[in-house]
Amino acid sequence: MLRFTQFLKRSDNRLISLVRKVVTGLVVIAIVFFIGRIYESQRGPALQVWHTWSADEMTASEIANATFADYLARENTIFRELKSHVTDRLSDDEKTPLNRFYAQSRVYPPQFQPDWNRSFILLPQGKPRGAVVLLHGLTDSPYSVHYMAEQYQQQGFVAVVPRLPGHGTAPGSLTVVDRSQWIAASRLAVREASRLAGRDAPLHVVGYSNGGALALKYALDSLDDKSLRQPQQVILLSPMIGVTAFARFAGLAGLPAIFPAFSRAAWLNITPEFNPYKYNSFPVKAARQSWLLSQELQQQIVAAARRQRLADLAPVLTFQSVMDSTVSARAVVESFYRYLPDNGSELVVFDINQAASMGALLRPAAYSALDTLLPATPRPYATTVITNAAADSYDTVARTTMAFGHKETVTPLHIAWPADMYSLSHVAVPFPLTDSLYGRDPAARDLYGISIGTISLRGETSTLSVGMDTLMRVTSNPFFSWMMARTGSHIACSEQPDVAACLRLAPAISPE
Description:
The chain has a single domain (43-508), classed as Alpha/Beta hydrolase fold, catalytic domain (Rossmann fold). The strands form two sheets. The protein has a ten-stranded mixed sheet with strand order 1-3-2-4-5-8-9-10-11-12, with helices on both faces. It has a two-stranded antiparallel ribbon with strand order 6-7. With 512 residues, it is α/β, with parallel strands linked by helices. α6 (179-197) crosses α7 and α7 (210-224) packs parallel to α9. It contains 14 helices and twelve strands.
C-alpha cells in the first residue's frame, strides 16, 4: 500500500509538472504572438479618420421593426454625417485626387449619379411579374449586383438592393456592425420587395460573396420561420459558404487593439481608399463576422439535411470560380451541394484557362483543382463546367452533366479566354469586361474616376502603397454574357407551374 501511495504521488507530480509546462508553453506562445502582432501592425500605415469614424447604423432589432423608408431615412442621415465628420475634416495631405473621401477627388462617390453606395430599388414597367432581393458582398456596395438587378427589372421584377449595415460609407463602420444587422437588413429588403410586387408574386434572392451566405441563410431560415416568405429561387455568385482558415483566428489578431496605442492591430489591411464602391482597408471584426456567419450557415445546412428539410429548399443556381482566394470553392460543394436533393439546383464552375501561356508558372495543383473539387457522378444536382475546348485552345465550352446523370453534354460557347488571363477570381464573377470600374475593356473609361480593371503597372514593387495582389487580381468576367443568359433562363421559369422541372431543363439549353 505504501508503494502504491508513493507511485500515485509521483504520478501526480509528473502530471502537475506536465500541466505547468503546457501552460507555460501556451503563455509563451501567446506572448510571442501578441508581440509579433503588435510589431506587424505598427509597421503599417497610420489610421486615418475614415478608419476611426463609424456610421450610426440601426441595430438588428431596430431594423426588424422598421420600414424600408425608415432604413433609407437613417441612410440619408449617415451619409450627411460622413460628409461632416470625414470629408469636411480632411487634412491637406489627405486631399488627393484618388481619395474617395475628398470632395474634389476623381473618385468621390456623391458626384456620380446614381451613387451606387446607397440602397436602391428598380421598378419594372407595368405590373410586376415577381420580386427579387440582391445582396452585395463584404466591404462592398450595391454596385456589385446592379447588373443582375437591371436584368431582373427588364424581365418584369421589382429589384430591391439594400446597402448592408457598415458598407458604402467608410471602412471604420465595419468595426462596429455584426452579422445580425446584415441578416435583419436582408429580411427588411424581402418585406419591401413583397410589399411592392405583392406577396403572391414569385420571390427570388440573389447574393454575391458574403451576400451569398446571407441569401442562402434567408432561404434556410424561411424553412422553419413561417413569418418569412420562402423564395422560389436562389442565385449565388462566389458565395461565402466557407472562408479561409485564417478568418477563424482573426479575432485573436485584433486582441492588441484593446490598448489604444495598438489600435492598428484591429485591422488586417490598411490601404489607400481609391475605389469609390468598395473598401480597400479590412478590419479584423469584419473577417471574424464573416467566418461566424459561414459557420452558422454550415451548421444550419447539416441540421436541415438531417431533418430532411432541404427537400423544401428553393432551387439554387451557383456560379463559382475554381480558383478563389477569398472563399472556399470546396466548401460550396462539400458543405452545401452534397446535401441537396434533386430539386433543380445547378452548380456552374469556371475552370482555369488550361491554355494559358504562363502555365509553367502555375502551381501544379491548379490543373487538377477541378478534378478534386467535384465528386464522381451521379450527383443530385446539375453541373456545368466552363473550360477550354482543348488544352491548347483558348476557345471555351460548357460541359454539362444533368442531375443523377453520367453523360456529359459539350456546348461551344463561342467565347475565348483572354490570352493573358489564367483564371477568374472571386471579385471578377459579377462584372462584364466592359464595366467602367472593373472591366478590362471598359465601354466608358474612368466613368467613376478610375478604371481599375485596366491597370497594368510595371516597376519596383516596394514603390507601391498597395499590395500587388490588389492590382494583379482579375476583376471582370469574360463569360459574363453567358452567365446572364443562364440566369435569364432561370428567371423565365418563374411563371411555370413546375419551376423545378423547368430548371432541370435549363442546363441542357444553350443560352443565346
